[in-house]
Amino acid sequence: MSLITAELGPVFVAMLMGWSALWPLRSRLGMLGYHLSALPIGLLGWSMAGAFSTLVGRPFDAVATLVGAIILVAGCWAIAFVTGEREGDETPIPWKSYVAAAAVLGVLGLVLTVARFTVSNNDSLMSYWPHGVALQRTGMFTAGIMATRSVLIPSVTAAHVLFGSKWAFTIYTLLAANTALWIAALLLKGPLARTDRTVKLIAVGGALAFLILEPSFIFHSFFVHSHMFSALYLLMSLGCLWLAIPPAEGDEPQSYNNAFLIVAGLSAAGLTLSRPDGLAYVFVPVAVAIAALATPYLRSRNTVAFFAPLLFVVYTAYASVYLTAGVWAADKLDGVTAMGILGVLAASAFAPWILLKLDSLLPFRFDGERFLATLVLASAALLGTIYALRWEKASLALANASRNLFGGDGGYGYLWYSLVALLLISVLTGDALRRGSWTRSPFLSVLLFFILAGLVHGTSHPGRIGVGDSFNRVAFHAVPLMVFYVGAVVARILSAPIADAVAEAEGSSQR
Amino acid sequence: MSEVRIVDRMRSRPFVDKLMLVAVLIVLLIGLGRFVRVAAVVPYAAYNLQQKTTAAKEAGRPPSKRTVFEVFAEHRYFRAWWGGRRVPYRAGGDYLAVVTHHSANRTLGTVLGTVVERELEAGARIDEVIVPEDVEALLGAFPGTSFTGADGVTFTNPWASIGSSAGLITEVPVTERPYQPLLNESEVAELESVTPLSSQTDRFLLAEPAEDGSGTWILHSRVDGKRRTFILMPLEFSPRGDEL
Q: Which residue of B has its CA nearest to A223?
């Protein structure tokens, strides 16, 4: 098969799986949300194919692909049915938009495939590619895959091998483009939704320019590794949560969009399965979901909309291994640890009700927004305590991380100085912690992500100095999120005069 | 809402809001400036390469095989901006990867195994694979040796030796050849003259060794009719000693 078929075949099949899985949600997602979600969500279908081939012990082939697609689509449709998110009487998605989305994907994919630019390291060569090749042949998620790479990227690689690929690379750049578009879409549908065109252009243009001119973003666009997958799924899961449960205005009841909650849950599953430590980072969107869901207007189907797709995809993948290989032993992520974390993940689904109960019982308010801030503070205190107890190792990890992010050894140049400075100024502007805003949750999410990353990386090994350090690369996952946050702050500042003018005009007309 | 009106309204914004906007603007301008400076190297690299090619032709020497991209990737502006990360290369062809010395022990078996598997799938008959004779020389030390990094951390090299990695190329007869772990430039030239690899293969040498800079390896293949031979050659001669 040709290089183009090998690179673009799995991408278009994933796109079809995504479109099909999200079909009942399309009107509620809107044209932009539906088409942008299709590829990343469709990629989960390859994991389902791997889970099926593992369970039945057959190669990762066309049959496994078909069954994987059916599992993903049936699961998503069932959740859409249970949560009441079926096609309604809202504006349908024009068929021309499908052609346009496919054309954009096809042209961009074609250019990237013909250009053939890629970057690899030991993990790409020694792990991702051989795991993908082996998975395609044997159809088995092995203990080695679960402990070192998790299932998503080996599955996507196996899909490429199935299509005749010798080296899967185009998908990474396509996901980078998807990440940039998601930032634009989130800004436009969120904090910029009620502002004028000039402000939209300035805020979105600035955010995208910053991102696509950033060397680390360009690098990870070509790097055959887990980082672009993780960054995209982290942004998507959080962004869809914010779109699903936007800040309530005044005394209006909290609105819920279950379609975006379902996509948020699926994206959180993608984040979980992109890397073994995705099982830790998934608690960032889970915490944000708990905080956002815990309002007096909460209904059980809202919680199901987020947690059911997350648990359905993650549990299917992990269950296939537990049922065939048993509880695996490993230095990095063993089967017992994974099982414990999966249990906590399922238990988290009850947290919104527990929070609401606590809010009614405690002598002080403890609603969702307060919960998230409290959780960040408690996690920071936990991190501080653990670091203090293991100071010898932790101090080395901190020193290495500091040299990598700020000292130039990690290759970031001025990036982290800029982002930290902007975050600090946003604390002064009040955006960081302003309640009922588009900016509070993203700010706390960034903090929570780094606390979790500090727990994962600072306590296990001290890392090393250089661009290849694991924490140094993982820090990139938060970059698109931070770009969105800064864009949202700028959007608030630039929109404020317009909001004032609208309020003024409404006031004068009432007089 | 006109832009003028927005600007008018901005005058009444709090100081910290203005500070935020100015900070964002500065960050954007720095990023844009750095990018423009790096982008400007591309025409410079093309011009530079063209001049050298012309000069070589006039002097009757063979033209340089370096590409504009290679010249660009080695420029100090690009290297400062790129931050020491690995440089993208074009996938496919005979080239598989540039592997650092630090990573060679982890990767060599897989590299060879992948190439062999790929060629077998393509219908090739593989008669021999050249592998280094001296495992210890290849790895820098024998697996299991303890190292102390520049940061004071002592770690043990746990990776498989060639012997066990060669499991990936089972069934393939292996011919061992004498191996020179660290070559100087004249030795590389001598090796090239004995086995004229560069005239028969695509070669992609990518700027500085990535990450720790302790050595760069390159995989060559030699084409002889329908027969192809692979060799992994060391190209970096002065390890910095940061890692190994």
A: B88
Pairing state of beta strands B129-132 and B174-177?
A: parallel
Substitution target from B86, B90, B232 for chain A, most A beta carbons within 10 A: B86
Size of interface A-B (CB pairs under 8 A): 170
> Do B16 and A413 count as a contact with CB atoms less than 8 A apart?
no
Contacts of A510 (CB under 8 A, 6+ apart): none
Q: Tens digit of pLDDT for each residue in A280-329?
A: 999 999 999 999 999 888 889 999 999 999 999 999 999 999 999 899 88
Using pLDDT thresholds of 50, 70 and 90, give the confidence band for residue A89. Answer: low
Chain-centroid distance of CA A169 in Å reads 20
- Exposure string of A397-423, with b = 16+ CB inside 10 Å and e = fewer, is bbbbbebbbeeebbbbbebbebbeebb
Distance separating alpha carbons of residues A63 and A463, to the nearest angstrom:
42
- Interface confidence, given as ipTM, is 0.91
N- to C-terminal Cα distance for chain B?
A: 63
| Distance, CA of A184 to CA of B196 (rounded, Å) | 52
Q: Is B107 on the interface with A (CB under 8 A)?
A: yes
Q: Nearest CA to CA, how far is B133 from chain A (Å)?
A: 22
With CB atoms and an 8 Å threshold, state whether B6 touches A215: no
Dist CA A442 CA A85 (whole Å)? 26
Distance from CA of B81 to the nearest CA of A (A): 7
User: CA–CA distance from A5 to each of A49, A167, A170, B113, B148 (Å)?
Assistant: 20, 12, 11, 24, 47
The answer to whether residues A135 and A154 touch, using CB atoms and an 8 Å cutoff, is yes
Q: Is the CB of residue B240 less than 8 Å away from at least one CB of chain A?
A: no
Cβ A17 vs Cβ A73: under 8 Å: yes
3-class DSSP assignment, residue A186: helix
Nearest by CB to residue A496, choosing from B13, B86, B96, is B13
Burial of residue B217 (CB within 10 Å: 0-12, 13-18, 19+) is buried
In this complex, which of A166, A198, A213 lies closest to B3 when CB atoms are compared? A198
The answer, yes or no, to whether residue A161 has pLDDT greater than 80, is: yes
* pTM, rounded to two decimals: 0.83
Contact between A54 and A141 (Cβ < 8 Å): yes
Give the pLDDT confidence score for residue B61 in this predicted structure.
82
User: What does the alpha-carbon distance between residue B216 and residue B205 come to, in Å, rounded to a whole number?
Assistant: 9
Residue A420's pLDDT band (cuts 50, 70, 90): very high
Tokens of B143: 């697996």
Q: Indicate the SS3 state at residue B88.
A: coil
